[in-house]
Write a structure and sequence with these properties.
five-stranded mixed barrel; 67% strand; globular; mainly beta; OB fold (Dihydrolipoamide Acetyltransferase, E2P)
Amino acid sequence: MNTVNLIGRLTKDPEISFIKVNGENKKMAKYVLAVERMGSKEADFILCSVIDKGAEWIENNIKKASRIGIVGSIHTSTYKKNDISILKTEIKVKEQYFA
């Protein structure tokens, strides 16, 4: 089962754009969530994306440093940059909450 639950703070305001899903334009929000490691002051910086109503909620309610909880799934992809393979890891968000 691919499910992830995280609580953290946005590192900057979310980026809002539009994508085509099944021929229909949908709003998409991307943001980086800073998640503190348990028992440490260090954090991991997690790329997150959400579409449609979730993107609208983010756009209207969440700004830099806002603390939120998310539920989603991990998606990975690879691409080449300067002949080097880059692994991209992103959380596709299904649910978001004020935390």
